[in-house]
Amino acid sequence: QADAQHLPLADASVDMICSNLLLQWLPNTHIVLEECRRVLKPQGVLYFSTLGTDTLHEAKQALASISRDHHINHHHDIHQLGDQLHGMGWQQTVLSQSWHQLCYAKADYVFKDLKNIGASTVLSPDRKTGLMTRKTWQACLTAYPCDAQQQYRATYHAILARAIRGQPKPKPDIHIPLDQIKRRSP
């Protein structure tokens, strides 16, 4: 166990990193991906899974109909994630996505299930703190979409990724002619 943003490992000391459903809980994925690059050996492989933008769209829809506050985390856009990996110098990146649905007999079972797996922390900076009123909660449950079979679905948009650590990006040489360096006057 360790803080993913500060891995207690030496530079270029690991051949492979596997991360399953971690990134969506962190406010800054860039820091974690850089930390993975740091500890991986050149040509080391990073495998990870995270949740995509369509995750829990039914719950987001129900909550948006009753409140402008963010009650569910925003998840990763697969295109932005791919661009981010490429921009950081990861090589041979491969991303794939799939959708999975769970069905519930009642809308409140969806939220109970989320709470039971620990998915109750919202990272949004404009998140309203405190509890919903009973009236607001009932409005949310009423707004939750129900299909023709009287099932309440919860969609999980899974993103799977593989990326290989290339050689570190060379730092650009900065040349400043001596005649351009001026002495500060006292």
Molecular structure report:
The chain is of the alpha+beta class and 186 residues long. It has 5 helices and 4 strands. It has helices spanning 29-39, 57-66, 78-87, 107-116, 134-143, and strands spanning 14-20, 40-51, 90-104, 152-165. A 4-stranded mixed β-sheet has the order 1-2-4-3. Helix 2 (57-66) packs across helix 5.
Over the alpha carbons, how many angstroms does the gyration radius reach? Answer: 22 Å
- What is the residue-mean pLDDT, rounded to a whole number? 87
Order of helices and strands: EHEHHEHHE
Sheet with the most strands: spatial strand order? 1-2-4-3
Helix proportion: 25-40%
- What's the count of strands? 4
Q: Beta-strand percentage?
A: 25-35%
Q: Could you say which structural class the secondary elements and strand pairing correspond to?
A: alpha+beta
* Span of the ends, CA to CA: 53 Å
Largest pleated sheet: 4 strands, mixed
* Contiguous helical run count: 5
Low-confidence stretches: none
Inertia-based shape: elongated
Keyword list:
alpha+beta, 186 residues, elongated, 5 helices
What's this entry about, in short?
This protein is an alpha+beta fold and 186 residues long. The protein is 27% helix and 26% strand. The protein contains five helices and four strands, in the order βαβααβααβ.
Chain-wise SSE layout:
Elements: E1 14-20, H1 29-39, E2 40-51, H2 57-66, H3 78-87, E3 90-104, H4 107-116, H5 134-143, E4 152-165
Parallel strand pairs: 1-2
Antiparallel strand pairs: 2-4, 3-4
